[in-house]
Design a protein that fits this description.
The complex is a heterodimer of chains A (430) and B (239). By secondary structure, chain A is an alpha/beta fold. Chain A is built from 22 helices and eight strands. Chain A folds into three domains: 128 residues, Fumarate Reductase Iron-sulfur Protein, Chain B, domain 2 (Orthogonal Bundle), CATH 1.10.1060; 156 residues, 3-Layer(aba) Sandwich (Rossmann fold), CATH 3.40.50; 124 residues, 3-Layer(aba) Sandwich (Rossmann fold). Helices cover 55% and strands 6% of the residues of chain A. Chain B contains eleven helices and no strands. In chain B, 76% of the residues lie in helices and 0% in strands. Chain B has 239 residues and is mainly alpha-helical. The chains are: A alpha/beta (430), B mainly alpha (239). Bound molecules: protoporphyrin IX containing FE and iron/sulfur cluster (2 copies).
């Protein structure tokens, strides 16, 4: 490889350097305690997926270019250049990582391997080796905001269709899906498609809150791709909307990474504090149920239900109890998986992996532990608030014949709400 | 032997302690002056108060309960060697000054028996742990993950411990004599007592110190900076 490019890549590492990264690169004891924390390593026993190994590739560059000892005695640290060989290996270890941070949980120094790999992604992108699919999806999202007038009518038409269904379900001919409503309390940011808009619209309607729907979807492929600038711009689309409309809070739909991007990353990326709160839709729904603003039938679901903590919502987002409260409020047989909450196993679908078709086989294989965990509960329904998790678990369900139904929490809530125009089956099957 | 001891047990000590202190300060300074990541890297659940965060950090660093859960055997050996090393470090304090209250309490003989037992235990535990780690790094993913640095450190550590153990279990020289030597270093009038020079244990001391010097010199440039970094990295966990 050209020295020129090598210098550029080292420059990227330099530019991304900060105290945490430097410490992580300096202190890892290579004790491999993180080895059995990673579902991908456990399922494949493939060295390239061992968390510390993934980070070690960046450490090798760091040692060579950022430490005197590594510069003079590279052999001691296996320090080396970011050449083609290194980059190829780095690509595989990096884009496979789901960013679940289970390895960080168990590391004696809490080394955030996923954070080191976010820097690895920046290096890969600079070398022209970013994941193509994720890059395209990120660009598509930006194309939409850059050429918004072109899309606006199609988007609004789509909302109108969903609005008809909201009217039907709530039995209220005036029920609406407000868009671009100045001064609304809540800006709700959904995913593309009706499935994440309809239940929320019904819930907001029943709870009688003042809300408005964002033109833009919450999903952020810039984040998965590893380009912080693009990721920020993608989130800016609805953050700017929220500022413009003067809302009190931005509520993110049932999506893992989008919540973390909005709640944890965006302020750091943009360098300014949000003039509104950011909450996850399940925090909001839990509050509505507790306050009696919406009603759910306590035994609406009699089959055993289990709950999967999406990494970005649980361990990395801090929402553990609200979804459980909701499920308990409407299901008579709730069973937690072991381990759960902050120790929960990643399902294997995060990090944008479900969008990368060449990873399909690997991804399903990496979900073996999750599948075992689900089986052990004996549940018939698995509820989970992250779309990537649900796609992955549907894949596991098919390939490992788990015989379960994978559900979004909002869908369960919708089924359990006594609505005037609600599904006829509610009355008949009870 | 005198030349050897002069190198490893006199000038080497001055050199290694200076490199260690300056090196560690430099590394800590580097960390402290590198800007923090603007992104909060903490994970949940996290303590709500500052004091809670510090307590959790201390627990995570000193006990590492999560690591204990996932690999109990490794944790046990890591915990044992760190505690034994701490014990041995404190034990070496006898070189600075006799632990007078302990001597008053236990009596001269009692103190020697106590030191023999505690020092001996620490020496054995450390040896066992280092052998365990060396063995662990010879196979499978542990071997693949290891780099020469890991083996170098373990080899130096092995050398320090085995020679220390040799002095304790085979050597016949007592703490009082070593104290004379160490005190002379402290006042910058280095002098090696004739008893050491006249005994074959002098060679053990020389080797023990040689390994120790090299270990301390390399320390600030190795992954062992985790001795300081573990605290701040674990604090980031609840940011
Ligand atoms: C206080 C928090 C600390 C934690 C959580 C910690 C953790 C660890 C771990 C997990 C290892 C495993 C290394 C391996 O697999 O080889 C290790 C090794 C080691 N640590 Fe620590 N450590 C701490 C503090 C210290 C301190 C204060 C010192 C010394 C002054 C120290 C010296 C060593 C040495 C000498 C090794 C063996 C080196 C090697 O394996 O190459 N540690 N430590
Ligand atoms: S557990 Fe932490 S210190 Fe040990 S190898 Fe993994 S990342 Fe490094
Ligand atoms: S963040 Fe998750 S997927 Fe990535 S290395 Fe760590 S445990 Fe494995």
């Amino acid at each position: 490889m050209e020295t020129q490019q090598m210098t550029t890549l080292v420059g990227v590492l330099d530019q991304k350097m900060n105290r945490q990264l430097k410490q992580y690169l300096d202190i890892c004891a290579r004790c491999a305690i993180c080895k059995d924390a990673c579902h991908q390593y456990v399922a494949t026993q493939d060295f390239k997926y061992l968390p510390a190994r993934r980070a070690e590739l960046i450490r090798q560059i760091y040692k060579k270019y950022f430490t005197k000892t590594g510069e003079f005695v590279p052999a001691l640290y296996e320090a080396r250049d970011p050449d083609e060989n290194l980059l190829d290996e780095l690509y595989e270890s990096t884009y496979a990582c789901t960013g679940c941070r289970r390895c960080m949980y168990y590391c004696p120094f809490s080394i955030d391997t996923a954070w080191i790999l976010s820097v690895a992604k920046a290096i890969l992108i600079a070398a022209g080796k970013g994941n193509e699919m994720l890059g395209q999806l990120a660009d598509a999202a930006l194309f939409k905001s850059d050429n918004f007038e072109m899309f606006k009518d199609i988007i609004v038409d789509g909302f109108k269709d969903i609005e008809q269904q909201v009217k039907g379900l709530t039995g209220d001919p005036d029920a609406e899906i407000p868009v671009d409503k100045q001064g609304a309390d809540i800006l709700y940011v959904a995913l593309a498609g009706a499935h994440s808009i309809l239940p929320a619209a019904v819930i907001f309607h029943e709870a009688k809150v003042s809300w408005t729907l964002s033109y833009f979807e919450a999903a952020n492929y810039g984040y998965f791709f590893g380009d912080a600038v693009k990721a920020r711009k993608i989130a800016d689309r609805f953050m700017d909307e929220a500022k413009r409309l003067g809302v009190k809070e931005v509520v993110i739909t049932e999506c893992g990474h989008a919540y973390r991007v909005a709640e944890i990353f965006h302020e750091a990326w943009s360098g300014e504090k949000h003039p509104f709160k950011v909450r996850h839709i399940l925090e909001v729904i839990d509050e509505y149920i507790t306050d009696g603003r919406i009603k759910v039938r306590p035994d609406a679901i009699k089959e055993p239900v289990t709950y999967h903590d999406p990494c970005q919502i649980g361990r990395n987002g801090g929402i553990f109890e609200q979804p459980r409260n909701i499920v308990r409020a409407l299901a008579s047989d709730f069973r937690d998986m072991t381990p759960n909450r902050e120790q929960q196993w990643c399902c294997g679908g995060g990090g944008g992996l479900v969008a990368i078709s060449e990873m399909d086989e690997f991804r399903i294989k990496s979900g073996t532990i999750k599948a075992e965990q689900i089986k052990a509960t004996g549940a018939r329904i698995i509820a989970s608030p992250c779309e990537n998790c649900r796609l992955q678990m549907e894949g596991l369900n098919d390939s490992m014949e788990l015989g379960i139904e994978v559900k979004a929490i909002m869908d369960l809530v919708l089924e359990a709400m006594p609505l005037p125009g609600s599904f006829a089956k509610d009355a008949s099957t009870d | 032997m005198e030349t050897f001891l002069n190198i490893s047990a006199v000038y080497g000590v001055y050199l290694s302690i200076s490199v260690f202190v300056i090196g560690m300060s430099w590394r800590t300074y580097q960390w402290a002056t590198t800007p923090k990541s603007p992104v909060r890297l903490g994970m949940f659940p996290k303590p709500k108060t500052g004091a809670g965060r510090v307590l959790k950090m201390l627990k995570d660093t000193l006990i590492a309960p999560q690591s204990a859960r996932i690999e109990p055997l490794m944790w046990a050996f890591a915990f044992a060697i760190h505690v034994a090393a701490l014990g041995a470090f404190i034990g070496h304090g006898r070189l600075l000054h006799e632990f007078t209250p302990l001597v008053t309490w236990l009596g001269e003989d009692g103190m020697n028996t106590f030191a023999a037992w505690s020092g001996g235990t620490a020496g054995i535990v450390m040896l066992a742990a280092v052998v365990f780690w060396i063995a662990r790094r010879t196979f499978g993913p542990f071997k693949q993950l290891s780099v020469p640095e890991d083996y170098l450190l373990l080899a130096l550590l092995f050398g320090v411990i085995i020679m220390g153990d040799h002095m304790r279990f085979v050597g016949t020289i007592h703490a009082a004599t070593y104290r004379e030597w160490f005190q002379s270093l402290l006042v910058f009038k280095p002098e090696i007592p004739a008893e050491i020079l006249g005994s074959s244990t002098g060679w053990s001391l020389g080797a023990h110190m040689l390994f120790t010097d090299l270990f301390l010199i390399y320390f600030p440039f190795s992954k062992l900076v985790h001795a300081v970094g573990a605290f701040s990295a674990n604090l980031v966990r609840s940011e």
